[in-house]
Amino acid sequence: MKKFDVLIIGSGLAGQSAALRLASSCRVAMVSKRTLEDSASGWAQGGIAAVLDNRDSIEAHIQDTLVAGAWLNDEAATRFVVENGRRAIEWLIEQGVPFTKDESGYHLTREGGHSARRVIHVADATGQAVQETLTRKVRNHPNITIFEHHIAVDLITGDKLGATANRCYGAYVLDSRSGEVLTIGAPSTLLATGGAGKVYLYTTNPDTSTGDGIAMAYRAGCRVANMEFIQFHPTCLYHPQAKSFLISEAVRGEGGLLKLPDGSRFMPEHDAREELAPRDIVARAIDFEMKKRGLDCVYLDISHKGEAFIKAHFPNIHARCLELGIDIAREPIPVVPAAHYTCGGIVSDQRGRTDVEGLYVAGEASCTGLHGANRLASNSLLECLVFAEAAVNDILSQKPGRFPTLPAWDESRVTDADEEVVISHNWDELRRFMWDYVGIVRTNKRLKRARHRIQLLKREIDEFYANFRVNHDLIELRNLVVTADLIVRCAMQRRESRGLHFSRDYPQLSPRLRNTILKRRRPVR
Length: 525
Prior knowledge:
Blueprint: E1 2-3, E2 6-9, H1 13-22, E3 28-32, H2 40-43, E4 48-49, H3 58-68, H4 75-83, H5 85-95, E5 101-102, E6 105-106, E7 108-109, E8 119-120, H6 126-140, E9 144-148, E10 150-157, H7 158-161, E11 168-175, E12 181-185, E13 188-191, H8 212-220, E14 224-225, E15 230-237, H9 249-253, E16 257-259, H10 279-293, E17 298-301, H11 307-313, H12 315-323, E18 333-342, E19 345-347, E20 359-361, E21 366-367, H13 380-397, H14 421-437, E22 441-442, H15 444-467, H16 472-493, E23 502-503, E24 517-518
Parallel strand pairs: 1-12, 2-3, 2-13, 3-9, 13-20, 19-21, 22-23
Antiparallel strand pairs: 4-8, 5-6, 7-8, 10-11, 11-12, 14-19, 14-24, 15-18, 16-17, 17-18
């Protein structure tokens, strides 16, 4: 057993910012599925929303967040995040993040759903700049032990140890290169594993976004809420050679117009806010126009702003599109919606605590109440920072207690897998039917079909997991099918259309505000 003061599973902004805050007084283990640089945080283009301008206000940011979230947000959690926004940005500046400046100071852009310019950014690659800045510090800190190319198999809880209290004591972690399963113990464990975009066929997320933390926490006995609210980003680049390349929200925020192949606009017919409407409205509008007209894509045109403006504001998008033969300074960008963000997740409080003692969560894997039924653009990185700090403060306030000896991973009754093709086939089937049946527009019939398919897959995967040695792909597939099941079950419970969940069977908004909450009756031993 390897023992640390704190185990952090995940290496995005939530995980790395927590590690750096903890490392001055704690021995920290950080588990990363690939390398520290590979996370959804690093893919974030737009920026971080915070009230940094005297013409803006805390109340305006809160109001915009509540409107985008269709009033399902937890108002206390929303206020907590927004009020701590400036301090979070100041901490990043102290770490050396090179935010873009203009003649008046830091440049603030405006994105869909925001009533003011409040998105601080590093050109159009904010996540990458933040990730690179923090990664250098994490790699050089002597109190942080990094486990790259390692994936958590499952949490070690009191329930598994036969204890009366269901406390978390760490996790079993697979070294993906050697095949060895490590036992990593810690009095406090922080899940910073990100979302579950890879449950869908088309997504803007990296391959690491497989719902690992959500699935592990659910198996451990945590409540999971509002998983039906999957945000589909309206504008993912449509090109056969472009895998999951996002065209930032800020392109529309800076004047980009959505058009049909004939050059005509369509957003004015769908919403008074036109291209600046929240993402769910824009994504549904694009989906509607594509299905109505039999289109493969629509077009996002910012060429009227001129080449100098585009290169200054969107250098990375301009360069990547140019590599693919699209000059966005002279022609529109072909785009389609794609799964982008998981608004639901593990239920947590304002200190990042879950239902299992000693287990914390921060970032996309959590359901803090900030996002409600739809996330406001650029609130995600802000949530990572604020709740990572909150979790750290609670962890540091805990008094040390007796720590048990944890059993090693038992492989005595399993063998090597005989048919790896089963994993790849099941993975492909899951992502395809989730896209077809549980996408932007849903029906009861489609959800029932998806649930039936999931139950069949789950039995097959559970049998595979019980009889064969674990590997990276099997662990991800096991977590994906649990996450898919949670999404479908939450969607079946919501008998209305709200935010990101649109049902043809229940197109109206219910006057009753309610969260969809799921919990295992008995955690898996």
